[in-house]
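Deliverable D4.2, example record:
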Amino acid sequence: MSAIRDELARHIEQGVIPPFNYAYPSRSTYRPLNGTRNIRDIWAEDLQRHPVPELNLYLHVPFCRYKCGFCNLYTVISEDMDVYDAYMDALCTQIRDHTEIIQSRRLRTIYIGGGTPSLLNLRHFEQLFATLNEVYPNWRSTVEEVAIEATPDSIVKEPGTLEGLIALGLTRANIGIQSLVPSEIREAGRGQAGEDVIRRAIEITREKQLPNLSTDLIMGFAGQTPESWRHSVDELTALAPETISTYFLTVRPDAWFSKTGAYQYMMSPDLYERYDYANATFRAAGYIQESNVRYKKLGRGGYQQKVLTFHGVPLLGLGAGARSYTSSVDYMVGNVKPSLTEVADYITKARNHELTPLTGFVLNDEEIIRKRLVLDSFDLDLNELNRFGYQEMAHLFEPVLEAAEEVGLLRRLPTNRIQLTPAGFKYRDTLSWMLFSKNVIDLDRDYYADLHSKNKRARKHMGSEPIGISGLKTSRA
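Output generated by the structure prediction step:
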């Protein structure tokens, strides 16, 4: 255990910055399922594993006006309304095809992500919510959160769409800001969303009485200084959104920033000082910390779907590029590389009821336990994991938990509950990575090593090693 403790302490001292762990295993570990799994059986097995049948619903809209330099999400560039029409028809067909799965569970959250879903016309959302009414008539009685992703410029261009969504039941909008310094906004590849546009978008959400405005800032843009970071934090705090997230910029090889060679992985204890400043500023303004990246106004803000997914509530992902998270298989019905051709293929297959899991990761009991430890260590009752064999496999996990306790990242309560300390929140992703299985690490490294090689050939030079999702060069699992 001392070796694990020393390794964890060393990563903290070096300022290692792994990407934010919002899913385990990551998309990079998905491999072809070769027809070995079907959707009905996957969800039937999940239902057997969960004593309380609940569900998060994620609906993916992959369309954007432009591609941000740091983005590696499943997005395509299109403003073609005919494509939007066909896509919404396909998505609603896919929702109906999952009626039994949805109706067998208590629907807890609905999240419309992307992409930039706010590019769609209000009539598309009316069609979508009419389909939800058809499949799950009382969703407004059970759902705790209805959310959408949007860009500031899409809100400013079509404020009526936001107003209509609120009337349909929207409770939260995630508006990507990243910075309130004009040069940094341009650096992110978001020249269309200047500071004046951002401020106007926030004003519109207030005018329309949106219950929960969620915003974000990114630490680590090229040219960002401690002073410019403090400016963004102070300005956003003054604007007082209900929810604020702060992310370290971690550029994966499939993002444009990496392909250009302008950004490379770095270890920087200085960036953790920016975390400290934001943490202190938000807390002083009355925010509480919901996760290592997110702060909320008590009783008003937050990101309920993410919290519930971390707690083990399964997520049904529908739409091109969407991932589904269950206790048996995490899967996608398409490939991991987005393109308009693949979106067209999704539309055709949805219309013909031919969608089936193509890629994914099959979870055994050990990986289910690791998933909860990686994602949910903020506050986790280890007794919940006994039905998956935690006691029998404790030797795989306890050394890491004990090391985390020794270095002050974790505390244990007498009831066998673990909780992250304030330092544990700060270094949560470093701790989480140490709970990854060797299989997940190896699959991730293979995927990103291949992308690095392709980028290197394209640019004929590469200044960093393949680092995978963790950013850590150790081979320990």
